[in-house]
Prior knowledge:
The protein is mainly alpha-helical. The protein has one domain (2-220). It contains ten helices and no strands. α3 runs parallel beside α9 and α6 (96-114) runs antiparallel to α8.
Amino acid sequence: xxxxxxxxxxxxxxxxxxxxxxxxxxxxxxxxxxxxxxxxxxxxxxxxxxxxxxxxxxxxxxxxxxxxxxxxxxxxxxxxxxxxxxxxxxxxxxxxxxxxxxxxxxxxxxxxxxxxxxxxxxxxxxxxxxxxxxxxxxxxxxxxxxxxxxxxxxxxxxxxxxxxxxxxxxxxxxxxxxxxxxxxxxxxxxxxxxxxxxxxxxxxxxxxxxxxxxxxxxxxx
Length: 221
């Protein structure tokens, strides 16, 4: 189980946060309200949005109660959805590389939190609910910066963005269900406590990799 999780974490770090090329063309071509297609695109984005998944793995890694998981996932969803819609409608142009670098750092932050680093370094524990909401805001801006680059039809834009967010939540539930099944099984094994530390070290490294890739892109752009 440890090796399987390591493989998944390494695999997802190789992909960038964004919208697939084929989907970009589709978004630019259609007009009017297209609720179901945009809902599908939102679900697809979340399932293949590996930076989102890495962050959520960190968030739920030590959460055992479904109620707690629901609270954190809801906070992340509120942040992600609000800045996505606001960023597009307010036409806020933020460099996508910088936003994605911050998203990578959110993975690093959560891995360090799981390792108890902040209590050891500063003698205090940051409010994890607030930080989850804040990083959700950045994750939403990450996608908004890409969507506003497309010449989307303003007719039905709000409904289409709402549909996209509905799809994001569906995709999030699908991704989290798979992750929870794996982690729940692993928690029953003696190796969970033994390798939980090294797993979060890997998670932190992957976050640095995501950040480094985006900073390289920024300085080369």
